[in-house]
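Bump. Still looking for Peptidyl-prolyl cis-trans isomerase structure tokens.
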Amino acid sequence: MTLDAGQVVIRLRPDIAPAHVARIKELTRQGFYDGVVFHRVIPGFMAQTGDPTGTGRGGSGQKLTAELSNTPFRRGTVGMARGGSLDSADSQFFICYDRAAHLDGNYTVWGEVVDGMSVVDRIARGEPPRRPDRIVTMKVQADAATNK
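Sorry for the wait, here they are.
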């Protein structure tokens, strides 16, 4: 994932959330996330993106069944945002800034930041941020390696 401030590398976790990883890869390959802003960024908690409208109310239109695991939400964990229903996740996701134990077992973990957390730390704060940062482009590394 490329942001204006630099690169963020997310290791996917198909071992704990195969359907979510497949959907994230599908949307990424379609260019869905390119240009999308971080619309909700709470210091000490998380940075949320994935809504093409930038309002926090949009998505891709395809709901996902929750894939809950024992994987804890800690600094760098990437999880799916959702509404009140466990099975309401769509395209929005968030990256945790710190440990968020209250999310454990209640939200799907699908990845973890393995490089570039300092870039995530620089994302503009706010709900919504006054001048939101955006995903310049998001790619599946396996595709980039083969020039797809």
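The beta strands are 2-3, 6-7, 9-12, 40-42, 46-49, 77-80, 93-96, 109-115, 135-137.

Edit: fixed formatting.
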